[in-house]
Amino acid sequence: MHINRESAGVKDNACKIHGIAGVSGAKNGRAKAPGKRMQAELQALHGAMVDLVAMMNEPQRDDMLLKEAGLSLERALFPLLVGIARFGPIGVVGMAERSGRDHTTVSRQLARLVALGLVEKRPGATDARVHEAAITKKGRRMTDALAAARQRLAEPVLAKWSEKDFTSLVRLLRRFVDDIRGQGDG
What we know:
This protein has two domains: 57 residues, no CATH class; 126 residues, Winged helix-like DNA-binding domain superfamily/Winged helix DNA-binding domain (Arc Repressor Mutant, subunit A), CATH 1.10.10.10. The protein has eight helices and five strands; from the N terminus they run H-E-E-H-H-H-E-H-H-E-E-H-H.
C-alpha cells in the first residue's frame, strides 16, 4: 500500500484527511455539527490516519517490502507501478493526481517503467490522443510478488487480531473511503 512519496505528501494528505473530520452527517444539505464524543472520535480517527499516511511514506517500508518480495526496483517507481496496477489503465494526469506528484515527474517515471517492460503506454479508451499506462504481464508478476510479500509481512501483526476484528476493519475502512469519495460526487 502506498499513499504519497514526496516530502509535502504527508502534509497534503493530512490536510485532505483533516477536511472530512468536521462533518458527521448532513440534513437538508447542511453539515450537522458532531457531538463532543463524536468530535473526540473524529480527532482520534484523524490522528490514526495521519499516522498511517506518515508510516506508509517511510522509505524503509518500501525497501522492506521489495526485499521480502525478492525484487529490485527504484523506490520512486514502486508506488507508481502499484498505482497503475490498481487504477490502470490510467493517464499521466490521473496518476499524478492519485499519487500527489507533478505530472512531469510521473511522466518521467512512467517512461522508466515502460523501458523496464513493467508498463505499456497505449491510446486512451475515450481519446486516442491521450496515452494511458497499463501494466504488462511482467509488471503484473512483480505486483503479484509484492502482494504475496505484503501478506507475509502482515501475517504476524494480524495474528493478534480476531477474524471478526480484521473483517470489520476491512469492511468499515472500505465503507469510509467510499463514503468520502462519494462526497465529491453530489
